[in-house]
## 1
Amino acid sequence: MAGTWGRISTAVSPFPNPHYCVVYMRTGISMAEIPKEEYVLKCTSGCAGCSSTLCLRYILKAAGPETVLVMPACCTSVIQGAYPNTAMNVPVYNIAFASAAACASGISASYRSLGKKTNIIVYAGDGGTVDIGLQALSGAFERGTDFLYICYDNEAYGNTGMQRSGSTPLGALTTTTPAGKIHAKKDIDSIVAAHSPPYMASACSAYPLDLFKKVRKALEVRGPTFIHVLAPCPPGWRFPSDQTIEVGKLAVKTGMWILWEREYGKLKISAPSRAAVKKPEPLATYFSAQGRFKGIDPAVAEQLRNEVRRNIQRFVREEEQSCDQ
Amino acid sequence: MRKRLATSKPTKGSSGKTGSWRTFRPVVDPEKCNACGMCALYCPEAAIDEDLRVDVDFCKGCGICATECPKKAITMEREKR
Ligand SMILES: Cc1ncc(C[n+]2csc(CCOP(=O)(O)OP(=O)(O)O)c2C)c(N)n1
Ligand code: SF4
Ligand code: SF4
Ligand code: SF4
Ligand SMILES: [Mg+2]
């Protein structure tokens, strides 16, 4: 959404509410196309400024009421609220950490055998995806389960107090890496890509319309689909709660996080990342916006910078090759 | 189906109201606001409705709306109690 903002005058606006402005973004979707229904009801038990809550709002707006969510243990199993009430206005199946994708496989099979097209969506954290739920995820993708797996990545085990996960980036402080993580972030996207899913994409909470569009696309496809959403977390990444969107934008603008989608193997870099892959902003702006990179060793910072450069090259090259096909 | 299956009911305010613990509240200056809707787009709690009114019962005071407002029409004011 770094593009140009334009306000459509109400005279030409096809939308009934004159107060609700219409802004077209470079994502090609206008806010007026987003359903007004909310499926995450007001006041969850998430932290103030939680981007996972924001993601879920748009994911469920894209999916609509004919949806079942499958959730392993994660922040969102708390966000949903405590019995006998819940903030979720779609059915949620809470399942053991390692089993989300396996459970979704069973649910999907039973709905399909009844001839129902209900959306089956796993919404899992990075710990529940790249570490603990990995074998179930691989199994479901291998079996061709008709479902959407969404990993919201706050780059640590948030619910239990920000321990490092396989998805924590190199150099980041967590409660179990008080001197900064010494291992690189696991490349879950390449692992999932090895299963050749018909559709997979990355997204970021700072670009909710891009996320919305990708969820819609994924749900149109039959078979296993995957979306990896970067979800900045104020207490975990140590930044003020009003900076949630800014930190997400910085991740994209610095190239630390690239937005892309791969349809039947063809890669396309998404609009908000177009400028960033050509001329990324200095990574230092991303580091200084968060406490978790405080005092990062210059050698580690350089390693990360190289990693970002290599990653950008890899995606740009893959996109060029995709075009040649 | 089993009779006593434990299922939760979808409820607005399932985690209570935020008024008692919120430290800042967003106050909109209608003179500056151009009704662009950015604040409502980014509010994680959906506490800003389509008429761009803030629901202070459920707003957590995170300040995202104020940071993202392109017109700087929202100020976060400390709650007095
Ligand atoms: C088998 C098992 N091990 C550990 C836990 C404790 N636990 C609950 S949530 C959680 C962290 C989940 O991290 P992640 O998947 O990244 O989601 P987040 O909390 O960050 O949203 C842990 C370790 C558990 N519930 N079950
Ligand atoms: S710890 Fe982070 S991801 Fe979890 S509820 Fe809080 S802000 Fe959201
Ligand atoms: S302060 Fe946060 S919760 Fe309150 S209206 Fe603004 S964005 Fe929503
Ligand atoms: S973001 Fe600012 S200008 Fe836009 S509708 Fe909200 S208060 Fe008004
Ligand atoms: Mg996590």
## 2
Amino acid sequence: MAKITFITQDNISVVVEGQSGSLMALAVENGIKGIDGDCGGVCSCATCHVHVQADQMQLAGEASEIEKDMLELDDNVSEFSRLCCQIEISDALDGIVLTVAN
Amino acid sequence: MKHSAINDPFEQARVEQGYAQVSDQDDPVTMLLRLKDVRKCAHNWQTFQSGAVPGRIVVPSEVSIRTTRQIPFEVDPPLHKSFRELLEPWFKRPLQADYQQQLHQQIETLVKSVLLGEPVEVIEDFALVLQSRALTLLLNIPFAESELWISWGTHVFRSEGEALDGDKANILYDYIDAQIDKAMAKPGDDLYSMLLAAEVNGNKLSKEEIKGVMILTFAGGRDTVINAVSNTIAYFSEHPESLQRLRDEPEIRGRAIEEFVRYFSPLTHMGRVVTEDTQVCEHAAKADTRVSLCWASANRDASVFENPNEVVLDRKMNPHVGFGFSHHNCLGATHARQILSTLINVLCENVQSIDFIDGQENIEHWDEFKRKVGYHNLNVKFNPA
Ligand code: HEM
Ligand code: FES
């Protein structure tokens, strides 16, 4: 079980718990504002864009080339950007804080 | 070639130079064929604009047959964003449970009605019916209205052959004019009334603007959905094992839908007008000329997609641009995805297999490129589960 914090654009912090599946699916299940997951997680829509807290980048891991290409052209991209449909939930993510990008 | 396969006529041009020039009336088009270039240009609205003369970004060009600007399609940021903010909540309604239930009921009724053992002509008697009925949900108007749209046939918005037919389009324009007048006289909770009551940047929408939104909603969601639905049926008729797999593994249905949209690419390409002298793929693109973003070609780009010419039902990484990319990405995608997902659910529940009988392919011609987008007619038999 991992505790995951999403901070939305209106600065509301929501803590949710997940065991498996993607962070996008978890966010959508919990109605996190700004995470739509339109494409269901195949890396085609970028409606699951988050910024990982700077000191937790190694927890989230590095984006693949395909994901980086998507991010490059999205609004509000930064060096801490990830598409959260590409991050699988595991215990290792416990405590991670993600700011919704849009 | 297998009957349900969709060819990729752009491969050689995409690999060798990345673009191709095709003629269209007196306004030629440079088609961009690689995924990265398509995305970059879609993103760069300053240089590759949508808000040109109405009809010009469509290929074949509609400049000589219409003056109404389609909204938000032919509007650039920042105004484009204001229109999207108004429209998006409405176009996300397919995510609501009661919408999904009604859509399920519509599609289940239709599928059960074709399970009688008689051959069915899929385009007019299945896909068009499905699309028209579903549109009543998107517009939030009575179901019975779909009968009129079905009676128009598939050709109302389609330009067959060489000439674009202005008269056919007039049926739709006159109809929408009348519907707007009706909603003005007696507002309800339909899309027309929502638009009549709305403001964008503090201003009420003009009747011409409302017309621009409604025309696009009708036209943009017609052939695209009909092609997506009929190609899906043709695919299952040739691949009973895929239907069985989706029945057994419901968890991959979402990926299968994205893969169908990638592989079928129901909308081949869409144009932009170049606003300043620039380069695409090391090729000069002059101000006031046209380029097009070829979604269909980009979706077969082997530098991104493994086995691009195969339908991989559970394709995990699928950064396709079948619904476009960036600012103008498809506003109807939520509705379209919900249609495909409901169709697949209903087929899995009710249909064992589909027999292909015959079909006449609908082939687009862009100079030397010939691309199948669907069928003029398609006859199949649905076998009950
Ligand atoms: C599988 C079905 C569909 C496909 C493949 C598709 C594809 C596309 C594509 C590629 C674009 C981008 C055009 C551009 O960048 O210039 C687009 C835009 C659009 N589509 Fe769809 N479409 C589908 C269904 C629908 C439906 C059902 C509707 C509405 C009833 C719709 C309404 C729109 C609108 C309004 C836009 C313009 C969005 C904007 O400019 O901001 N589409 N579509
Ligand atoms: S959900 Fe579509 S890219 Fe992540």
